[in-house]
Design a protein that fits this description.
Layout lengths: L29 H28 L4 E4 L2 H8 L17 E4 L3 E5 L4 H7 L4 E4 L4 H12 L3 E4 L6 H10 L4 E4 L3 H7 L3 H21 L9 H14 L4 E2 L4 E4 L20 E6 L1 E3 L2 E2 L2 E7 L4 H27 L6 H14 L11 E3 L6 E5 L12 E5 L2 E4 L3 E4 L2 E6 L4 E4 L9 E2 L2
Parallel strand pairs: 1-5, 3-4, 5-6, 12-20
Antiparallel strand pairs: 1-2, 2-3, 7-10, 8-9, 9-12, 10-11, 13-14, 15-18, 16-17, 18-19
C-alpha cells in the first residue's frame, strides 16, 4: 500500500522557489501501518523457510539469532534501537526445522506472545546457559549455527560449556543476504520514512539563518520528523556548518551559522521499523565559488553512479557490482583532483538497520548488486578546515521491474537559503 500521493519534491512551492512540506507525500495513514504489519506476518513463513533450507544444506539443526533486526524480521518481536543492550536475552530466538522459540523474561513475555503468536515463548533470566541444554534438547538440536559477529566470546564459551555435546558452528550471512532483497511493503516503508525526512527539512528551511546554532537546527529537525510521522530517528541528526562540514560524521554543537557558509544536514527517520538516510548541503547566502564548484562535482559523481545503474537496467544487462558502482562516482571525483578528499564508500543498503547490505565501496563484493534492493548513493568531498559537501539519496534498484528510482525527493540541486 502506498504511503500517500503527492510525492514529487521538485520544490518551488515556497518563497524564493524553496520546497515546502506539501511538495512531499503525507505521513502514512493508520490503514497503511496496519497493512504493513499484515504484510510482515504474511511474509514471515517464507523468510523462515529460506533460513531452514540453508540450515538443512549446512547440516545444522537450529539457528540462534541475537540481533535486533533479525528478531523483528523472523519472529515479529520489536525491540527499539539499542534496547537489546538492556533486554538481556529477551527477543533472542532459535529456529529449528519445525519450531521457532522466542526467549523472554518477565518484562517481555506478554509482548513476545502478542507479536510472535506462532512461536513458543520460553521464560529466561539473565542466566541463559542454565536453560540452554533444556532448550536445545526440546528441539533435538545437536548442531547450532550462531552468527559470529553477533555473540560475545564470553556468552559463546558459556553456552558451549553448558551443553558440551552440542556443536556451535558459525552461521553464514544468510539472513543479511535475504534482508538485502526488499519486499514491496519494505520498500514502501523506506519510501515513507524518506518522505518524512523530506518534509521535515522543507519545514525547517524558514528557520535557517545566520546566528542560529547547529544544535538548535538539529533539535528542530528532530522535532519536525517526530511530529511529521517518524516513530523514531534512524540515527542522530548531524548539522554541520562551514569547516565542520568537512567531518563526514561530525556532531552538531554550539557553533553559529554564518552567511557564506555551507550547511550540511545528514539525518533520517524511522517509520514502521524501516529507516531513511539523506544528506543535503545547502548554501547560507550567496555561495562561494569554491563551495559551489565542489557541490557541482559531487552532484556529477552521484549522477555517474545512478546513470551506471540506469543504463544496465534499461539494456537488460547484468547489474554492476557494488565495487563498480562505487568506482563510477569515485572516478569523477578523482579526475577533478579530489580523490584524497573522498574517503568513505559511495553507499550502503538500508532497511531495518541504517547500514546493511549491499555495500557500494572499494572493498565491496564483485558480484552483481542484488535486486530488488534499496541503498544510498552518497559521494562527498571534504576539505579539511575549509568546507565539505555530500549529497545522499536512497535509490530503489529493481531490475525485473526496470526501475532505478530515487526514494529521496528533496531537491538535490544547489539550494540557497537567505543568510
Amino acid at each position: 500500500m502506498s504511503a500517500g500521493a503527492g510525492r514529487g519534491g521538485r520544490g518551488g512551492g515556497g518563497p524564493a522557489g524553496l520546497p515546502v512540506p506539501a511538495d512531499f507525500a503525507p505521513p502514512p495513514s493508520p490503514r497503511c501501518l496496519r497493512a504493513w504489519d499484515e504484510a510482515d506476518r504474511a511474509a514471515r513463513p517464507a523468510r523462515l523457510a529460506r533460513l531452514r533450507e540453508r540450515l538443512a544444506a549446512a547440516g545444522v539443526d537450529a539457528y540462534f539469532g541475537l540481533r535486533r533486526e533479525e528478531i523483528r524480521y523472523l519472529t515479529g518481536v520489536v525491540l527499539g534501537d539499542g534496547e537489546e543492550k538492556v533486554a538481556g536475552h529477551s527477543g533472542r530466538f532459535l529456529v529449528a526445522a519445525d519450531e521457532v522459540v522466542v526467549l523472554a523474561d518477565s518484562r517481555y513475555t506478554l509482548q513476545a506472545r502478542r507479536e510472535a503468536p506462532g512461536a513458543r515463548v520460553e521464560a529466561v533470566t539473565y542466566d541463559l546457559p542454565a536453560r540452554w541444554p533444556e532448550l536445545l534438547a526440546s528441539l533435538g538440536a545437536r548442531r547450532v549455527a550462531v552468527p559470529p559477529g553477533d555473540i560475545s566470546h564470553g556468552l559463546r564459551e558459556a553456552l558451549a560449556a553448558a551443553a558440551p555435546a552440542v556443536e556451535l558452528v558459525d552461521a553464514g550471512p544468510w539472513i543479511d543476504a535475504d534482508r538485502a532483497l526488499k519486499e514491496p511493503a519494505e520498500v514502501e516503508r523506506i519510501a515513507a520514512a524518506a518522505a518524512v525526512a523530506d518534509r521535515a527539512l522543507a519545514a525547517l528551511l524558514p528557520e535557517i539563518r545566520a546566528g542560529v546554532t547547529e544544535a538548535a537546527l538539529a533539535w528542530r529537525l528532530e522535532v519536525l520528523m517526530r511530529e511529521g510521522g517518524a516513530e523514531a530517528l534512524a540515527f542522530d541528526v548531524a548539522v554541520l556548518a562551514g569547516p565542520q562540514a568537512a567531518l563526514p560524521h561530525g556532531s552538531p554543537g554550539p557553533r553559529r551559522v554564518r552567511t557564506g557558509q555551507v550547511l550540511l544536514f545528514d539525518f533520517g527517520a524511522q517509520v514502521a521499523g524501516y529507516r531513511s538516510d539523506m544528506t543535503r548541503t545547502l548554501f547560507v547566502g550567496e555561495p562561494r565559488p569554491r563551495d559551489l564548484g565542489v557541490h557541482l562535482l559531487v552532484a556529477r559523481a552521484q549522477a555517474a553512479t545512478i546513470g551506471l545503474l540506469e543504463r544496465a537496467v534499461a539494456a537488460g544487462e547484468p547489474l554492476p557490482s557494488g565495487r563498480a558502482a562505487d568506482a563510477a562516482a569515485r572516478d569523477v571525483i578523482e579526475a577533478a583532483g579530489h580523490g584524497p578528499h573522498f574517503g568513505h564508500g559511495t553507499g550502503h543498503g538500508i532497511g531495518l538497520a541504517t547500514h546493511e547490505r549491499p555495500s557500494l565501496a572499494r572493498a565491496a563484493a564483485e558480484e552483481p548488486l542484488p535486486t530488488p534492493t534499496v541503498f544510498s548513493v552518497e559521494p562527498g568531498v571534504y576539505l579539511d578546515g575549509r568546507t565539505g559537501v555530500r549529497i545522499e539519496d536512497l535509490v530503489l534498484l529493481d531490475a525485473a521491474a526496470r526501475r532505478v528510482e530515487r526514494l529521496t525527493h528533496f531537491p538535490r540541486a544547489e539550494l540557497v537559503v537567505p543568510g
